[in-house]
């Protein structure tokens, strides 16, 4: 159970990081 919760948290953090990176790239391209 604890292992599953840890995986979910890590996945959430990873997803947030990926979305932030994509948003930054799109914003940069939009600025060009």
Shape: rod-shaped
Number of helices: 1
Radius of gyration: 14 Å
Order of helices and strands: H
Alpha-carbon distance between the two ends: 47 Å
What is the average of the pLDDT values? 92
Summed up, the domain count is 1
Organism: Bacillus sonorensis L12
Protein name: Stage V sporulation protein AC
What this model shows, in words?
The longest helix has 30 residues, at 2-31. The termini are far apart. The protein has 1 helix and no strands. The chain has 32 residues and is an all-alpha fold. The protein has one domain (1-31).
Keywords:
mainly alpha; 94% helix; 32 residues
Spell out the blueprint of helices and strands:
Layout: H1 2-31
Give a short synopsis of this structure.
This is Stage V sporulation protein AC. It comes from Bacillus sonorensis L12. This protein has 32 residues and is an all-alpha fold.
